[in-house]
Design goal:
By secondary structure, the chain is mainly beta. The protein has one domain: 5 Propeller (Tachylectin-2, Chain A). Helices cover about 5% and strands about 35% of the residues. The protein has three helices and 25 strands. The strands form five sheets. Strands 1, 2, 5, 6, 7, 8, 9, 10, 11, 12, 13 and 14 form a twelve-stranded mixed beta sheet that branches. A hairpin with a 3-residue loop joins strand 10 and strand 11.
Length: about 400
């Protein structure tokens, strides 16, 4: 299951295809000016609100009550959020060593088509500074309209699936949240722009979009090779190069326009912190039902990387409402699969500490009544189940 040394590339994976095959060159749009920069409290302001008793109390869940062989002590939402049929949790990003978790949700459209509004997306900011008493608040993702629409409605919905989240650092803009936008690329939000919402907004806090990173609509093609950004995760290669890995979700046996599911690797630009330009590598023929990807610093003897210092790749793969999900560990083309490792409806993954080879990963599950946020302990790394 392990690729020979001469089959690997600088991503620590085997068998990449030429980068141009995915037609996924990324270009940044011009930034949108924050609507009320003077009112922005940023992520720290919201965390201060939670630590003073604001928001909602999450309920802790012991690891032995969570489905999945590799999960530890996690948490769940309030009764209303845990069973809400309209909002579905998806992407996950860990901040400050996992003491803060960001969970993306998308809104399902319902009712007759002529009454449907533009579906929204939101972020739940979970404060785990006291792991025994986590609190959270919802933040609506919004986009500032340009004139003349802005005179009537300054903020609009961001209609994305939010299947993958990643936090990267820009030298000029601070911490940026990247949100997967399936057909177009990524939406970019500056966490410093987070502020309390206008009185009529659906959530008490809003985060306006700063810009987007897009695959050009015509240049990327509408057919054979267009890449779908279902999920995304930030990490580093063996030489320290910061990268963003994105992947496609497809069911078993399902063939999309580009064939079997692919993983895509982009270099993060040093000046902006954003994934720009052509991908470094495209890895086709990956496992079906992929929901999230994480890169963990490698150590000699880890699955898929024996004797190599490159990153260990980790994929989550769902198996429906009733069956536990799987964890693939190793590298593209050299996976060790752990069946039943994750709860049913598992989604995205992100390491608590992307620089620590023994870091736990954080994930989330989506189905009403079975919605958890949980740590994942990689096999063979010596982490004790149940630790957080």
């Amino acid at each position: 299951m392990v690729p020979a040394a001469d089959d690997t590339d600088d991503t620590g994976a085997a068998g990449p295809t030429p980068a141009h095959a995915a037609r996924a060159a990324l270009r940044a749009t011009r930034p949108r000016r924050p609507r009320s920069p003077a009112d922005a409290e940023g992520l720290d302001g919201l965390l201060g609100h939670l630590r003073s008793g604001g928001g909602a109390a999450a309920r802790t869940v012991p690891g032995d009550e969570l489905p999945g062989d590799l999960t530890g002590d996690g948490l769940t939402w309030t009764q209303a959020d845990a069973h809400d049929p309209a909002w579905w949790p998806q992407g996950v990003a860990a901040v400050d060593g996992g003491r803060v978790l960001l969970v993306g949700w998308y809104e399902r459209a319902s009712g007759p088509w002529w009454r449907r509004r533009v579906p929204r997306s939101r972020l739940s900011v979970v404060d785990r500074s006291d792991p025994g008493a986590p609190r959270y608040a919802h933040v609506e993702l919004v986009v500032g309209h340009r004139r003349p629409l802005a005179w009537w409605r300054p903020l609009g919905a961001v209609p994305v699936h939010a299947g993958g989240l990643a936090v990267v650092t820009s030298p000029s803009e601070g911490r940026l949240l990247l949100v997967a936008d399936t057909l177009l690329g990524l939406r970019v939000f500056a966490l410093d722009d987070l502020h309390r919402s206008p009185a009529r907004a659906a959530a008490p806090w809003v985060l306006p979009q700063r810009r987007a990173v897009r695959t050009p609509l015509l240049g990327a093609g509408l057919g054979a090779a267009r890449f779908r950004f279902s999920f995304t995760g930030a990490g580093a290669l063996a030489d320290g190069t910061a990268v963003l890995v994105s992947g496609e979700y497809r069911r078993a046996g399902q063939r999309g326009p580009g064939g079997a599911p692919r993983l895509l690797v982009h270099r993060l630009d040093e000046a902006t912190g954003l994934p720009l330009g052509e991908p470094l590598a495209v890895h086709p023929g990956q496992p079906p039902r992929m929901q999230g990807v994480a890169l963990v610093p490698g150590q000699p003897g880890q699955p898929g990387q024996p004797g190599q210092p490159g990153p260990t790749w980790v994929l989550s793969a769902s198996a429906g409402h009733d069956r536990c999900g799987d964890l693939h560990v190793g590298a593209p083309g050299a996976w060790a699969t752990h069946r039943g490792a994750l709860p049913p409806g598992c989604e995205d993954l992100d390491p608590a500490d992307p620089t620590d080879p023994r870091s736990v990963l954080w994930g989330a599950s989506e189905h009403p009544g079975r919605r958890w946020v949980f740590p994942v302990h990689l096999p063979g790394l010596g982490a004790a189940a149940g630790a957080s």
